[in-house]
Amino acid sequence: MKSFDVIIVGSGFSGLSAAYYLQQAGFKVKVLEVSSQSGGRARSDKMDGYTLDRGLHFYHHSTTELKKIININELELKNTYPGYLLRYQNTFNLFTNPVYQTFDSLSTALSQNATFTDKMRLFGLYVKLKTLPYNKLVKENESSTFEYFSKNGFSKKLIDSLFRPMLAANIFDYNLQSSSRFSKIYLKSLFQDHVALPKDGIGKISKTIANKLEPNTISFKTKVKKVVDNGVELMNGEFIESKFVIVATNAIDANGVLHREVLSAECSHVTTLYFSADKAPVSKAVVILNGNESGLVNHVFVPTNLHKEYAPKGKHLIAVNVVKEHDLDDEELEIKCLTELSDWFGLSVMDWKHLKTYYIKYAMPFKPILDEVRFFKKVSDTIYCCGDSLSIGSMETALRSGRETASIVAQELEKNPSTLEKLEFQQ
Ligand SMILES: Cc1cc2nc3c(=O)[nH]c(=O)nc-3n(C[C@H](O)[C@H](O)[C@H](O)COP(=O)(O)OP(=O)(O)OC[C@H]3O[C@@H](n4cnc5c(N)ncnc54)[C@H](O)[C@@H]3O)c2cc1C
């Protein structure tokens, strides 16, 4: 039986961040991870020369947590186009983020799906979200996102053709039933900065953080069955002792290892289908949204338009994302998506080669009401939970949650005289 100051269950962003800060403070930490790599939901797979992110993720430049741990230049980031390409009826319109005024803004101004009043209100919303700090946003009146847009005078046409696919692409909520505070926080972050991808895929971020940990901190392919006050029991029956345990998994897995409902398990889903093609369907590195209510495909992105390294030489990688509920099997879903996309891009779509489909059952916590933004939860005197399920789904909140949980656990360890062992361990 080994003994640690802290065992962390899960090596997603929250677990890695907690491990990093606890090790920086000199504690003896072990991270147990069921899969074969770190990064949790934000990891990438390599397949036949392609880099497949587990669902389309972007790094947001305005975030601050990651920069506290790594030098982001190591990621070789490139920015996507600042806005969206909206497929509405049979045309494409560019919606450019007003902060990055370009000639393309003319396309935004002329777009067919918004009335003049909508465009004015959209600009008003942009200015409001850009100037209002986060701590004020989370105190604004709460309602569903749909109610918020309707009450603020946006037309049904704009809500259906822009807000639905845009929020579905970011928080996987096509029905706009999430808390309006939650959606406004997302829109604020979308309006205020550029988003980017690392050259080696989103998984490069967690790998870079994991490299900051002491060697052998993470035990991969190690599934925790049960968390108790003095340690964890593994699936293979082994017991590992520790003074504290931090559960850094999604809410469903946390409730599973804690054997009771500690966190709300409501979540959103997304399916990402990857295709390979000889030619990219568009030339810009822009997220293409489906502004027509019909159809299953919500958004499409071509990572190779940003980093050609996402695919072997001469090939393009295309990520097709579905957010609406469906009951199609793998093959039916693939055919349905390609049929829809042949309307967007022409029949050459039928030559695309399907690579892989990811069904992501727990994409982000679903929050109909955002009453409290918390970054850790105390389950008992020695067990804490962290991760995005406590607040809102993002790499930033997961990293902050890990940091804040590490800080509180470190304070508890410092109070405990038995932590003197820590000093012996360091010598
Ligand atoms: C498709 C998609 C797109 C997204 N896009 C963005 C984006 O653009 N920008 C952004 O900031 N955020 C985005 N997010 C959200 C972001 O990925 C998450 O908020 C963040 O990664 C959550 O990290 P976490 O540490 O809280 O949990 P997780 O990443 O879920 O990590 C939990 C870890 O625990 C492990 N685990 C679970 N059970 C056990 C067990 N019993 N024993 C051992 N290990 C266990 C899991 O394998 C996993 O590695 C996106 C999410 C998805 C799914």
Account of the 3D structure:
With 427 residues, the chain is α+β, with helices and mostly antiparallel strands. It has two domains: 160 residues, 3-Layer(bba) Sandwich (FAD/NAD(P)-binding domain); 216 residues, Polyamine Oxidase, Chain A, domain 2 (Alpha-Beta Complex). The protein is 33% helix and 25% strand. It is built from 13 helices and 20 strands. The strands form four sheets. Strands 1, 2, 10, 11, 12, 13, 19 and 20 form an eight-stranded mixed beta sheet that branches. Strands 8-7-15-16-17-14-18 form a seven-stranded mixed beta sheet. A hairpin with a 2-residue loop joins strand 3 and strand 4. Helix 1 runs parallel beside helix 12 and helix 6 packs across helix 8. It is globular, with a radius of gyration of 22 Å. The protein starts with a strand and ends with a helix. The C terminus is likely disordered. Flavin-adenine dinucleotide binds next to helix 1, helix 10, strand 18 and helix 12.
What brief labels describe this structure?
427 residues, alpha+beta, FAD/NAD(P)-binding domain, eight-stranded mixed β-sheet, disordered C terminus, binds flavin-adenine dinucleotide
Task: Tally the structural domains.
Answer: 2
Number of strands: 20
Structural class based on helices, strands and sheet pairing? alpha+beta
> Stretches where pLDDT falls below 50 for ≥5 residues?
422-427
What is the averaged pLDDT score? 92
Based on CA inertia axes, which overall geometry fits? Answer: globular
Bound molecules: flavin-adenine dinucleotide
- How far apart lie the N and C ends? 22 Å
Instruction: Please give the CATH architecture of the largest domain.
Output: Alpha-Beta Complex
Q: State which percent range the strand residues make up.
A: 15-25%
The CATH C-level name of the largest domain is: Alpha Beta
The name of the CATH topology of the largest domain is Polyamine Oxidase, Chain A, domain 2
What is the number of helical segments per DSSP (H or I, 4+ residues)?
Answer: 13
